[in-house]
């Protein structure tokens, strides 16, 4: 019987010490890696706790979502996806036009303005309408249109600034500011400016006759409209004929416009050509037939209620080619007749200047200028006189052919509800014919027939009503900031889904677009 011996591995003291040192070194390395990982993990957790990540707030009760698969994209017609249409936000807009701000859904840049979109063929009419409650940025949006249009060579015209909101902008653009109100400036309604007299320089006799005939008709319509406002009724046929014949007799070629007292004196002298027009049998019959007309003209003359506003030579004529603002803030807003008369006069003079300048450009073979006409505080004009409703209606229908884009601004659709159904339908037509509509914050009761015209979805109506909320008060300062909906608009073009965006102003624009500057004295 034999026995087997088991031999064990025996390490020397040197080898055992080396292995022990290596084990300690590995253990320290593992502790170091764990410590660095712990520090980085703690920093990441702190960063995620201060801001939301791509899946939400990564903190207790933060509501972070679990991983999910990415959605795939499909296409379909409005019939196939009818349950999803109309959408609350439209598709991406072309980068054409004035940069207005960022898209409220996708944060992409939104660019648009009536001139650029019309020239690009996106819209069929260079017109825009802006609706929104006071203090939500309507005027600031118009300032952006004005500043960019002026930089691109278009001519802004604000022909009735009643607050005023655009004087500082015009001065910043080296434009022209014409102040017109009682005691501040004069305008002769029969003087259409030096450009009208320059039409005689057109060499082509047919073109010259056409241009001068247009100016004569404009002047006749202007005086007839002003007289009708003073009378509170439309002129009778013989009264219109008296005005037309008197203007032709006093100034047949637009070179020496008469003053108001000269027109009144001429009618009082009973000239033969006026007797023939009225078919008056004697002086008594003549005086009786012109009595009402003379009463209206006298009220506009130097002896009338408005003094010499309309009775002296024009203080300043419109300079073509530069931005222009008619500052009428000094007109008493409670005098509806004067307000209507001043606004009608300013708009007529501006329109006549544009038309005369374009006639001269065509005759000289040079490109015509493009104008941007701004009609802010539209409700003041519409409430002043029925004549102004029809006057604006004519402007909105003919501006495209005259090279004039227009931007109309008012507060709500209720501003367009006038004294009769006929006038209301005419005023609502301003919105219907506008190719672009910018909707700011509106209460549901202020939208009127807007949903019928532009097919507003339920989401869009809710969004507009949310923007009317008042600003929250900071308990530390006791002051409120901007209203939540300030600067927010939905751009609608026809029946398409709207594009919600927020207007971004530069620091310089804030200085010239502040409509609360009159409150700066109150600290």
From TrEMBL:
<protein>
    <recommendedName>
        <fullName>ATP/GTP-binding protein</fullName>
    </recommendedName>
</protein>
<dbReference type="InterPro" id="IPR027417">
    <property type="entry name" value="P-loop_NTPase"/>
</dbReference>
<feature type="region of interest" description="Disordered">
    <location>
        <begin position="19"/>
        <end position="62"/>
    </location>
</feature>
<feature type="compositionally biased region" description="Basic and acidic residues">
    <location>
        <begin position="39"/>
        <end position="48"/>
    </location>
</feature>
<feature type="compositionally biased region" description="Low complexity">
    <location>
        <begin position="51"/>
        <end position="62"/>
    </location>
</feature>
